[in-house]
Amino acid sequence: MTRADRILAFGIAILALVAVPLVALAVGTGGGDAVVVGPAGRSVLSLDADQTVVVEGLQGSVVVEVRSGAVSVKESSCPDKVCVHSSPIDAQGGVIACVPNGVTVTVGSAGGGLDAIVR
Amino acid sequence: MPLSAEVSLPLARSVDYGARRVAYSGVLLVGAVVLGLAESWLLSFSPVPWLRLGLANVAVLVALAYVGPRSAFAVTSLKVVVVGLATGALFGPATLLAMSGSVCALVAMLLVRAAGSRFSVIGWSIAGAAAHVVGQFLGAVAVTGSDGVLSLMPLSILASIFLGAATGFVAWALLSRLRLAV
């Protein structure tokens, strides 16, 4: 590992650390309701009421469950089940994504500021 | 016999340059595919399926160091296609993410490589790993149509620095023991 390698690694680390609050600000996680975005559209689930919702994804259905103020993915038709193994997210914010099904679950003030730029 | 003189030539001289590059690229592609498949199998036991070591990038790094950018491009893009075929994920979103990650990684590695010998293979690998994460997240935003996933990106980039350094070290160890004639 050369000196330049170390400077590069350090630079990337600094950039990533600076990006943590910036991304959190732009995406706006934390507080409010759970927002489920999928190919069929967008739906908002209140964290106060326990409920189970089935969302149609790209490859099949995704079962999203709200229980005791936290939302998680119970079942999904995707191959690797990253979303099912993700820990539940609550009002403190967070994201669960099922990429194969094109479904994301976020908790936060609805609609991030990056949408307009990325799309 | 005139033939014996030809036969006695060392193989390395009798085979033309282009053919050798194709042969090396082929061997490295096989290595990338095997490492990629082994890793996706190991991934099913991982407690954090987001993180992967990126061992297949060892083959891309060796291709870039020994054969050249075109070989590295062939190895990385064909690896995505072959692994996609083998896992049945071809043309699906997983392949799209792998493709966008791989292309970003290769571009980053080419840029660092162009900066000259100040950077070692480990530096190429770190840049490639971080760019791979960025590429995958951009792909994920495109697939899910939601920017929420981006909040996971900074932590993944931090992890990628260590994982990239680890794969870069493997590539460095391999390169220092290889005596390929290109």
Question: Can you walk me through this structure?
Answer:
The complex is a heterodimer of chains A (119) and B (182). Chain A is an alpha+beta fold and 119 residues long. Chain A has three helices and seven strands. In chain A, the strands form two sheets. Chain A has a four-stranded antiparallel beta sheet with strand order 2-1-7-6. A three-stranded antiparallel beta sheet of chain A has the order 3-4-5. Chain B is mainly alpha-helical and 182 residues long. Chain B is 75% helix and 0% strand. Chain B contains eight helices and no strands. In chain B, helix 3 crosses helix 5 and helix 4 packs antiparallel against helix 5. The radius of gyration of chain B is 18 Å and the shape is globular. The chains are: A alpha+beta (119), B mainly alpha (182). At the A-B interface, helix 1, strand 1, strand 6 and strand 7 of A face helix 6, helix 7 and helix 8 of B.
Write the layout of secondary structure elements.
The complex is a heterodimer of chains A (119) and B (182).
Chain A: H1 3-27, E1 29-38, E2 41-45, E3 51-56, E4 61-67, E5 70-76, H2 82-85, E6 94-98, E7 103-108, H3 115-118
Antiparallel strand pairs in A: 1-2, 1-7, 3-4, 4-5, 6-7
Chain B: H1 2-7, H2 11-14, H3 17-43, H4 57-66, H5 69-87, H6 93-114, H7 121-144, H8 153-177
CATH H-level superfamily title of the domain at 29-110 in chain A: N-utilization substance G protein NusG, insert domain
- Can you tell me the CATH class of the domain at 29-110 in chain A? Mainly Beta
Radius of gyration of chain A: 17 Å
Helix content of chain A: 25-40%
The rounded Rg of chain B comes to: 18 Å
List the total number of helices of chain B.
8
**What's the CATH class label of chain B?**
Mainly Alpha
The shape of chain B, in one word, is globular
Number of strands of chain B: 0
Residue share in helix of chain B: over 70%
Number of spatially distinct domains of chain B: 1
Largest interface: A-B, 46 and 40 residues
Strand content of chain B: under 5%
Count up the helices of chain A.
3
